[in-house]
Amino acid sequence: MDQTKKQASRPPYGVIAVLMVGAFISFLNNTLLNIALPSIMKDLNIEASTVQWLTTGFMLVNGVLIPISAFLIQKFSVRHIFLAALGLFSIGTITAGFAHVFPLLLAGRMLQASGSAILMPLLMNVMLVSFPIEKRGAAMGVFGLILMFAPAIGPTLSGWIVEHYDWRMLFHFITPIAIIVLLIGFFLLKDKKEKVNIRLDFLSVIMSSIGFGGILYGFSSAGSKGWDSPEVYGTIMIGIIFLFLFIWRQFKQNAPLLNFRVYKYPMFALSSVISMVVNMALFSGMILLPIYTQNLRGISPMDAGLLLMPGAILMAFMSPLTGKLFDKIGGRILAVVGLTIIVVTTYAFSKLTLHTTYTHLIIIYSVRSIGMAMVMMPVSTNGLNQLPKRLYPHGTAMNNTLNQVAGAIGTALMVTIMSNRTESEAKELGNAAMQHLTAPPTKAAIAEMKQHIMMQAMLNGINFSFLIATFIASVALVLAFFIKRSKQAEEIEGNGQANPAGKNATKNLAEN
């Protein structure tokens, strides 16, 4: 009897392991593609504004599908969701690997996103219900260690593959791994799911798709089309209107697609806001640093990937440590220290020159990664810890959705600020240079002067964007002082008795 009880309460490590491998290859796929974009542009003869849709389209699909993940997790078993998600991801990977025209490549990329969007909320939900609140930090730390190896090896591996093979090898490399994990999941995942009598509200799905999709599309297009474009502000306005309608409808539903009542729990609401603000600031480094290293400094894709590797490895190894520290001291100290590091290092990136050493860049990025490891998982876990078990799927779906939105907004904001600043700086530097001319310059001198002015203008634009990102990160730092250790809320059972959320949480997942 006791042995049976012990087995029933034991976390389903087999299920978690399979889900983690699936999430890992999804993360790895994302980090592989960024370095290959210039090669894809050249091979398919497309412009930068077009190739960016490989990233933007991925974010759009994520933003649309993640809200539906809460419904799927409640309605279907882990086995069925995982097989469907990884199946879509595998089909998308195969399609992209054999694409010889951009529309087919984009279609494959969006199929990948449709699977990837479901994998992460699914894994997070299984982790939350499998571990008691006092052990959750350490479990999330190990989870972070495994997933952070993807950005650690992704850029360098991508640089090496692109230098020696065709860019399609990036997808061919992922395909057999995805199929093997899919087969392992098919034979090993045996969890059972009680029938849940809930239906998908298709009107909510449409409102959510137009709302989140419109906002993401508008902000993602702003960098190339400009904020004054009707296509940009029009889609953003439509997105906001439908988002308000979507939220209003969710409060009227007994079984909402996304349960916005999670925001009545103060620590979850605070962690959600901090995560969004941090994501906006951190995307500055992911977008601006490659532009600086490759466009201004002429650093090769391979070396640009190697530059990011020490920071990613540090972040991976810091995750279990911060998880254990979170269990002992809570999230506030970790968040305050981590965000202080992020603010200081982001400010250091706003002081880049055309002669900043490679070693200096590695050190700043690595220290910044330590700060990221101290913030992201502890803040998110502290917020989710306050939710009752029944709201875990909605909490994880909400966090993932809003982080996608924040990332898209942060990307568009930083790129737009950089572009506008570069343009204004180029005019000022050009006028200043013309005023100091004492004799008519030669054509060679004019060409050299223009090149120097554009490089300096772009550098000033990048530095100014990092400065704005510093202020954004400072907002998160101030909010971090209000974090308190979460206590899991109680939920009411059918008999009207309060019961600690999470009791017998692993009942359905323990059979593996």
Overview of the molecule:
- This protein is an all-alpha fold and 512 residues long.
- The protein is built from 16 helices and 2 strands.
- The chain has helices at 2-9, 13-44, 48-51, 53-75, 78-97, 102-130, 136-164, 169-188, 202-225, 230-252, 266-296, 301-329, 331-349, 358-385, 392-435, 443-480, and strands at residues 490-492, 498-500.
- The chain has a two-stranded antiparallel ribbon with strand order 1-2.
Break the fold down into its secondary structure elements and pairings.
Elements: H1 2-9, H2 13-44, H3 48-51, H4 53-75, H5 78-97, H6 102-130, H7 136-164, H8 169-188, H9 202-225, H10 230-252, H11 266-296, H12 301-329, H13 331-349, H14 358-385, H15 392-435, H16 443-480, E1 490-492, E2 498-500
Antiparallel strand pairs: 1-2
Key terms:
512 residues; mainly alpha; Growth Hormone, Chain: A; 2 domains; two-stranded antiparallel sheet; 16 helices; 1% strand; disordered N terminus; disordered C terminus
Spatial strand sequence of the major β-sheet:
1-2
Tell me about the biggest sheet?
2 strands, antiparallel
Structural class designation: mainly alpha
| Distance between the ends | 19 Å
CATH class descriptor name of the largest domain: Mainly Alpha
Proportion in helices: over 70%
Low-confidence stretches: 1-8, 492-512
**Count of discrete structural domains:** 2
Strand composition percent: under 5%
Tally of extended strands?
Answer: 2
Order of helices and strands: HHHHHHHHHHHHHHHHEE
Q: Report the total helices.
A: 16
Task: Write the CATH homologous superfamily of the largest domain.
Answer: MFS general substrate transporter like domains
- Measured on Cα atoms, how large is the radius of gyration? 24 Å
Mean model confidence by pLDDT: 78
